[in-house]
């Protein structure tokens, strides 16, 4: 049986909802408290300055009563094996995944989350790498990982920071939806869940629901794109 507990955030900040991770504070605290977590293992590899990123992440977790320890200050393999919970922050998805491969952490994280039930929290790039692959990231490939296949904690892709084309826009270029549909023209592509800013995907075992303050848009090959509202049960995507 799959034991996963995931909280995948589209973004770390949302306009009008306070600072870093504040809009998702209740959901983050709930998943950690429900699992008796005292220390969260932070993976800052999506950004270059790990110390600066750690200082940013420490503030909200400390306020909520949790200690945070960064993997970059420890032996990475040992840190994953001993982690009570894992949080991977945003930044550049290609840099993040490349580092996870270089440190041989992809399979280790997958095993701990899917087989041992270690809670996993991802934001932006951290949500991208939680999925089947990073094909639908918005980031520039500033570095190149050995594969675009990711942690595979869910069997579909996510597009964080999903944006609709504004009404009456004079923009004549392609939209985010255009890009996702281009991806799905490829024979080995998968379902894509576009998460708007402030949208969150919560997964427990084989159940999945949209949480947060905004919904998303779902792209299944061969079907019309579908609006997904907050509170929607999308467990069928896990089958």
From TrEMBL:
GO terms for cellular component: cytoplasm. It catalyses: Dipeptidase E catalyzes the hydrolysis of dipeptides Asp-|-Xaa. It does not act on peptides with N-terminal Glu, Asn or Gln, nor does it cleave isoaspartyl peptides. Its EC number is 3.4.13.21. The keyword Repeat does not apply. One of its GO terms (biological process) is proteolysis. It is found in: Cytoplasm. This is dipeptidase E. The lineage of its organism: Eukaryota, Metazoa, Ecdysozoa, Arthropoda, Hexapoda.
């Amino acid at each position: 049986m799959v034991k996963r507990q995931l909280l995948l955030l589209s973004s770390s900040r949302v306009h009008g909802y306070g600072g870093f991770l504040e809009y998702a504070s209740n959901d983050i605290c709930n998943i950690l408290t429900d699992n008796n977590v005292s220390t969260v293992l932070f993976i800052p590899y999506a950004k270059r300055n790990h110390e600066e990123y750690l200082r940013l992440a420490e503030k909200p977790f400390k306020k909520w009563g949790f200690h945070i320890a960064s993997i970059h200050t420890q032996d990475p393999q040992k840190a994953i094996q001993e982690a009570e919970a894992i949080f991977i922050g945003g930044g550049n998805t290609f840099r993040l995944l490349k580092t996870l491969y270089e440190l041989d952490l992809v399979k280790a994280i997958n095993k701990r989350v899917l087989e041992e039930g270690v809670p996993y929290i991802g934001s932006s790039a951290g949500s991208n790498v939680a999925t089947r692959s990073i094909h639908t990231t918005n980031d520039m490939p500033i570095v190149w990982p050995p594969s675009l296949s990711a942690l595979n904690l869910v069997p579909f892709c996510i597009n964080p920071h999903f944006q609709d084309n504004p009404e009456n826009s004079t923009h004549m270029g392609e939209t985010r939806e255009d890009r996702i549909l281009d991806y799905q023209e490829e024979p080995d592509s998968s379902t894509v869940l576009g998460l708007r800013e402030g949208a969150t995907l919560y997964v427990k075992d084989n159940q999945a629901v949209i949480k947060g303050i905004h919904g998303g848009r779902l792209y299944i090959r061969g079907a019309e794109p579908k609006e997904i509202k907050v509170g929607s049960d999308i467990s069928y995507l896990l089958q």
